Amino acid sequence: MSFWTILFAWLGLALGLVVAVAVVLLFNRVMLPALQIKRYADHILGAGVGIARNLDGVDEAVRTRELATAVPGLAVAYLRRLGAVP
Q: What pLDDT sits at residue 1?
């Protein structure tokens, strides 16, 4: 092998190493914000699931309200039947 072949081989390896380091640095520079965005999105998703869990009982609350508004009329009808209210 000639001197120039060895020299160009070493230069190619050094340039390849520089490019590899640059790629790793740029990859880290892109991935850090992406991981932060994922963490924020997971936090938002958890909060949304918590809100949905808190709203699961809304149907039961509506039914409770319907029953509670019916109580006074039923109580008056019961008292009339007993003869306690004219």
A: 80
Q: What is the DSSP string of 32-86?
A: HHHHHHHHHHHHHHHHHHHHHHHTTTHHHHHHHHHHHHHHHHHHHHHHHHHTS--
> Residue 29 is encoded by which pair of tokens?
């520079």
Residues 6 or more apart in contact with residue 76 via CB below 8 angstroms: 85
CA distances to 24, 34, 54, 79 from 27, rounded to whole Å, are: 5, 11, 41, 79
Cβ(58)–Cβ(64) below 8 Å:
no
Please give the structure tokens belonging to residue 80.
């009339």
| CA dihedral of 36, 42, 46, 51, whole degrees rounded to 10 | 90
| Reported pTM | 0.54
Reading the block at residue 27, the tokens are 């990859």
The DSSP 8-state label assigned to residue 13 in this structure reads H
